[in-house]
Design goal:
alpha+beta, Aminopeptidase
């Protein structure tokens, strides 16, 4: 496998499609973070880019690699050793704590093959997140809430502490999935950072709904609205149901009401993710696909801690 570093992916006419919204989105991301583009060549070409950034919650230096995979290139994912060695050279002198590799494909049925080929060659990498999106149909109607025991309503200021606590737990779960071992001190630091990031909790670009039983807080769903080049997208920040209220269908109920609000706000698409290795990951993914969600990428992570990015094969 060879690697060719390029100055501007937009000059690669065979690979770059200016009418493809996914490409436009990644061009915007790469420009924002001063990313470096490259093309991997082994019979077929596989474009990608990487950048380094400080995680706004953990405050650790991290590296993010994005690879665009097709039905012609997924078979090469077990042979990325040369790529990681090249990247290791470029990152010399930078104190990178963790590296993420995100495999992106427009072919949803490829992701099982992507997972098998990559983890076959690099079993030391952990699957951490599956990213999904759902186009919103404007004529879809919200189901009637037949569970009179629970009520869905809009956020009010008195909900702030409960929601910040949920967001903190969600971040800790995500970091743990990537292999981070969190001490009590780290957990407290994350709580402080979540507060800095999300207070004030409510603004014009956030949609927040709360589920309650009587006056008791049961959970919430929160979105962040992003105005992209040609469409309005809502990122699902968190859907969280307290443990004592789980297994009652409340996450689904919150999602249905949240999507209805998104439609009324003229949002065309929502995006979210599933943390890997959770107990109900497989069932959750199955249910989401049945309700119109599509897998768009999978993310893997490896803690560096002074170790090489790749193993000797």
């Amino acid at each position: 496998m060879k690697i060719r570093w390029i100055d501007d992916i937009r000059r690669e006419k065979i690979l770059f499609d200016p009418n493809n919204q996914e490409w436009v989105k990644h061009i915007e991301i790469s420009n924002e973070f001063n990313a470096y583009w490259f093309i991997l060549i082994q019979n077929s070409s596989m474009p990608g880019y990487y950048f380094t950034s400080v995680n706004e919650i953990s405050e650790e230096n991290e590296c993010y690699v994005h690879l665009f995979v097709t039905d012609k290139t997924y078979k090469y994912l077990s042979n990325l050793n040369y790529v990681f060695k090249n990247l290791e050279e470029r990152l010399k002198g930078e104190e990178i704590k963790i590296i993420y590799v995100e495999f992106i494909s427009s072919l949803e049925n490829l992701f099982e093959n992507i997972h098998n080929n990559f983890t076959c060659g690099f079993p030391e990498w952990k699957s951490v997140v599956t990213l999904l999106e759902k186009p919103l149909c404007t004529d879809e109607k919200i189901p009637r809430n037949n569970n009179s025991e629970f009520n869905i309503r809009e956020y009010v200021p008195s909900d702030e502490e409960n929601i910040l606590d949920c967001l903190t737990k969600a971040y800790i779960t995500g970091l743990s999935a990537s292999g981070e071992k969190l001490s009590e001190l780290n957990a407290k630091k994350i709580e402080t950072k979540v507060r800095e990031l999300y207070i004030p909790l409510k603004n014009e670009n956030r949609i927040i709904l709360v589920c309650e039983k009587g006056k008791e807080f049961c959970g919430h769903i929160s979105y962040e609205i992003n105005e992209e080049s040609t469409e309005k997208v809502a990122e699902l920040l968190d859907v969280f149901v307290l443990e004592k209220f789980q297994s009652k269908g409340l996450a689904r109920l919150l999602s249905q009401y949240g999507e209805d609000v998104c439609r009324r706000r003229k949002i065309q698409k929502i995006r979210g993710n599933i943390v890997s290795n959770s107990e109900n990951e497989e069932n959750l993914l199955k249910n989401l696909k049945q309700s119109g969600w599509i897998v768009i990428s999978k993310v893997y992570a490896k803690l560096i801690g002074g170790n090489a990015l790749c193993q000797s094969h």
